Amino acid sequence: MKTITVSTRAKTLNVLLKQAQRGGLILRSPEGREFVLAEIDDFNREIELTRKNKKLMKLLDERGRQTKTYTAAEVRAKLGLS
């Protein structure tokens, strides 16, 4: 992982960093990709708590074993949106 120092002139990013101090953020790009912005100490604690969440871990394991995928057209058809 790479460390980047944020300039004081990066106003929008500094606002997000201040918000992340109060609680982690999920940043979503225009393309829909998601990123986590959290203080490292808080993030480590979040990982620890997440790993202890047996229901979530089971769900993630089940999803990880899924091999079937659907195209957007198939999903629209199944939902009657075509």
Write the layout of secondary structure elements.
Elements (H helix, E strand, L loop, with lengths): L10 H12 L2 E4 L5 E4 L2 H13 L1 H12 L6 H7 L4
Antiparallel strand pairs: 1-2
Describe this structure in words.
This protein has 82 residues and is mainly alpha-helical. The chain has two domains: 1-38, no CATH class; 40-82, no CATH class. 54% of the residues lie in helices and 10% in strands. Strands 1-2 form a two-stranded antiparallel ribbon. The N and C termini lie far apart (43 Å).
Key features?
82 residues, single chain, mainly alpha, 2 strands, flat
How is the main sheet built?
2 strands, antiparallel
SSE order, one letter for each helix or strand? HEEHHH
Any low-confidence stretches, pLDDT <50, length ≥5?
none
Give the end-to-end Cα distance, rounded to a whole number of Å: 43 Å
Provide mean pLDDT, rounded.
Answer: 89
Q: Give the spatial strand order of the biggest sheet.
A: 1-2
Summing up helix and strand content along with how strands pair, one would put the structural category as mainly alpha
Strand proportion: 5-15%
The radius of gyration computed from the alpha-carbon positions, rounded to a whole number of angstroms, is: 18 Å
Query: What form results from the Cα inertia axes?
Result: flat
**Structurally, how many domains make up the residues?**
2
Give the helix tally.
4
Oligomer: single chain
What is the percent of helical residues? Answer: 40-55%
Query: What is the β-strand count?
Result: 2
